[in-house]
Amino acid sequence: MSKQVIRHRSEGPPSAPEVHGNHVQIAARPHADAEMTRVLKTAPLRMASDPSNGVIAYWRHEAVHDVVGPMADHVLMAFPSGSLRFERRSGKSVVMGTTRCGAVTVIPAGSSSRWDIPEPLNVVHLYLPQTTLQRVALEAGMAAPADLVERSAHPDPITSRLLLSAADVLEGSAALDSLFRQQVTDLLATRLLIAHAGSPVTIQPVIGGLSSTVLRRAIERLRSDSDADVSLAALASDAGLSRFHFCRAFKESTGLSPHAWLRQHQLEQAMNMLRNTDDGIVSIAAALGYSSQTAFAAAFRKLTGETPSDWRRRMR
After folding, report:
1. pLDDT band for position 170 (cuts 50, 70, 90)
2. Between the CA of residue 287 and those of 226, 271, 283, what are the distances in Å?
3. What is the SS3 string spanning 124-173?
């Protein structure tokens, strides 16, 4: 995830929540990116935001001894490495947890607790709006989503791996990166509904893929060399499906997710240009939509084990 300047979705310092009885007024809650910046007293190392979907942030912060106030978003955390004991207090409830790879922490929107983390910590966060959770539930044919359950370093290797991949698998291509974040955020929302809601749900397996006409139209859009919109929303709309069902049907038809298909297509384009033209690596990177020669070379090497220059010399 490339380093970005943070633009919080809530302007100015978060105001104190307005409390009526036991209920905090949602309108007064800050978004999670602003509240976490206040509590962690630093900026994330990397951050990627899709305002309609969610925010993914990679943090390296110092010890924390503070109250995380009620937020407008659900927060999901995963830990890249290491093991660290921490304490989380909610009212009279005290939970001791240990951060480790394969565990996740869930802070439902609107909840508040005091955190005592005695040492520096590396952690990846997802800030998920309730609207995204509701959309995914609706698209998957679920009932209205139940409230999420608070978790503190709860074992869940599948969700942990998904969230950590969201921080690591970014390739310097705007189309690829955006499509990947959209897919993984929807997958994470689905995982939260399945494994971390008060009434877990079961999703029925997909039956059948896309029709040949719909699949051809989706592939034409993904292959387009113009500035065509290759977002999940656009692909699904063309197919007349929800994002959730489009991704499942596309994979049923091709064996690949839309992101993986586009990445494979770009790799094939790169190989053709390296083999059949004398274009420089910088020009090829730009033609394929990469932000730099370095980003293109890193993505190419990740998939082939070779740099573009070494691959070209070997194939000629």
Report:
1. low
2. 10, 13, 6
3. EEEEEEHHHHHHHHHHCCCCCCCCECCEEEEECHHHHHHHHHHHHCCCCE
What is this structure's pTM? 0.80
For 19-170, CATH number? Answer: 2.60.120.10
Q: Are 299 and 290 in contact (CB under 8 A)?
A: yes
Residue 134: Cβ-neighbour burial (10 angstroms; 0-12, 13-18, 19+): middle
Give the span between the Cα atoms of 210 and 204, in whole angstroms.
17
pLDDT tens digits, one per residue of 178-214: 888 889 999 999 999 989 987 766 666 666 789 999 9
Q: Is 49 helix (H, G, I), strand (E, B) or coil?
A: strand
Q: Which 3 state secondary structure label does DSSP give 253?
A: helix
55 or 18, which is more confident: 55
Q: How far is CA 39 from CA 26, 51, 58, 213, 276, in A?
A: 19, 22, 15, 51, 54
Which residue type sits at 183?
Q
Give SS3 for 76: strand
Which DSSP symbol is given to 101? T
**CATH for the 263-315 domain, from 1.25.40.10, 2.170.150.70, 1.10.10.60, 2.60.40.10:** 1.10.10.60
Find all residues with CB under 8 Å of 90, minimum gap 6, and list them.
Answer: 111, 112, 113, 114, 150
